[in-house]
């Protein structure tokens, strides 16, 4: 267990160093304010689709792809249960209306790209990206449908329902998912696969290098966000503690419980890495755009910022503990 803990600590510290580089560069003025939005677009629309495509081409066979559906089912159930538990916690502890939606979504939805992706690669290698994509698809789809609707529903200025969230189909097909979709024919059709790997080696080399940008850019971006939110604005109160417990402990336990129950019902996951990926992703920091949504729907922006910043910092401690706990499943 000690070796697992130390390996996890070293992986997390590597991530922290890159986050610190972004924070330091911003504090010195080497990176300007507008860079964060540009970096986010490059990560989501260029680097991440390339990383997903490259991982699918290098690490997956058709027989493996057919087994991803079980993880998809587990992810859906886990997130829906977390949402329900978040609502119960908010009601039991009488959370203020302007924080209700933020607490529920803060417990439920994770930062699967900017921290989840680098974390998974550091812990489990490039071959785990397709497993992460399973959780990412569900997390993203439900966040931008039910998650946004929940925050909008608890908008304290929304007395008539006129400010309810509008459904956006584009969120159901985010750019990283296209890396998976485009890879499918190359995986299933041998002639296409051979042509790409033998005659178009330069394409695969370029895709691999672009995909390699995900980890450093994502972590630099998080460093920029932490600098933007600021350590001085951090505070701890009852509602923040509830969010931290919900995100790091309850959400992870729900996923672990579903995986164990599924195994007893004959719905086991294909590999241990798949199992570990889903549990780790269920306990990643809260999604980074929460303060933006809080502002849009007149919720408590300071509280949203508090949750995002605290979870982005404390995952450094939480992740090694989760990796040790997973070994007892």
From TrEMBL:
One of its GO terms (cellular component) is membrane. The chain crosses the membrane at residues 6-25, 68-90, 102-123, 129-152, 172-190, 210-229, 241-266, 307-328. It holds the Pfam family Mem_trans. This is AEC family transporter. It comes from the Bacteria. It is a multi-pass membrane protein. It is found in: Membrane. Its main location: membrane. Keywords: Cell membrane, Membrane, Transmembrane, Transmembrane helix, Transport. GO terms for biological process: transmembrane transport.
């Amino acid at each position: 267990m000690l070796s697992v803990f130390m390996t996890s600590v070293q992986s997390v510290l590597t991530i922290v160093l890159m986050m610190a580089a972004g924070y330091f560069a911003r504090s010195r003025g080497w990176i300007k304010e507008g860079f964060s939005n540009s970096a986010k677009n490059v990560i989501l629309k260029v680097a991440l689709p390339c990383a997903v495509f490259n991982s699918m081409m290098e690490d997956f066979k058709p027989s493996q792809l057919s087994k991803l559906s079980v993880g998809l089912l587990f992810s859906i159930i886990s997130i829906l249960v977390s949402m329900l538990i978040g609502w119960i916690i908010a009601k039991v502890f009488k959370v203020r209306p302007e924080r209700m939606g933020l607490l529920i979504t803060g417990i439920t939805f994770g930062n699967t790209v900017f921290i989840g992706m680098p974390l998974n690669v550091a812990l489990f290698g490039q071959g785990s990206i397709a497993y992460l994509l399973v959780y990412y698809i569900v997390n993203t789809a439900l966040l931008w449908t039910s998650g946004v609707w929940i925050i909008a529903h608890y908008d304290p200025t929304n007395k008539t329902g006129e400010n309810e969230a509008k459904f956006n189909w584009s969120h159901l097909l985010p750019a990283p998912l296209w890396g998976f979709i485009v890879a499918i024919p190359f995986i299933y059709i041998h002639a296409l696969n051979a042509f790409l790997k033998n005659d178009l080696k330069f394409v695969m080399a370029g895709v691999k290098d672009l995909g390699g940008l995900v980890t450093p850019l994502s972590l630099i971006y998080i460093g920029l966000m932490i600098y933007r939110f600021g350590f001085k604005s951090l505070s701890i109160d009852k509602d923040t503690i509830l969010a931290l417990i919900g995100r790091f402990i309850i959400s992870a336990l729900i996923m672990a419980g579903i995986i164990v129950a599924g195994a007893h019902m004959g719905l086991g996951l294909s590999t241990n890495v798949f199992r570990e990926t889903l549990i780790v992703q269920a306990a990643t920091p809260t999604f980074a755009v929460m303060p933006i949504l809080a502002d849009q729907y007149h919720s408590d922006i300071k509280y949203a910022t508090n949750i995002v910043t605290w979870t982005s910092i404390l995952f450094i401690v939480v992740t090694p503990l989760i990796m040790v706990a997973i070994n007892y499943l």
